[in-house]
Amino acid sequence: MEHVVYEMNKVACELAVDAAKEVTEREPHRPRLVAGAIGPTNRTLSISPSVEDPGFRNCNWDEVVQAYKEQVQGLVDGGAHILMVETIFDSLNAKAALFAIDEYYEESGCPQLPIIISGTIVDQSGRTLSGQTTEAFYVSMQHAKPICIGLNC
Predict the structure, then answer these.
(1) Of 83, 73, 77, 70, nearest to 33 (Cα)?
(2) Per-residue pLDDT tens for 36-49?
(3) Closest listed residue to residue 83, CA positions, set 93, 94, 75, 91
(4) Contact 120, 150 (CB under 8 A)
């Protein structure tokens, strides 16, 4: 469904914004915001999908940035209040998403939205799939000045 990424993100965000407005009208003391989720992809920049060829990658930086940028554009055009880079199992993918957000703003001139980052810890080691500790993940993301960095899984 790669050919409809922009449209899916835009329409989904518009529906969420409409629902948030409707609920906020009923409860104006509790305004609702929409966080548009960016990611994850089914590709990783840091780890080879082939055990036999550890240097192989099935994607490159530019492709991943472009995929994220299409998501960002759809979410911003759909009216998101926050951008959430989520379920990040690969820190390099997160950096590509943050780069795509910056590039989108630079090209579009749109006002920047707050960012939330949600990383994924995959097992009892407390590390991401690409091997970063929780602290290392935080340090590698803090340059984006997100309003929140969280973990799941």
Answers:
(1) 83
(2) 999 888 888 888 88
(3) 75
(4) no
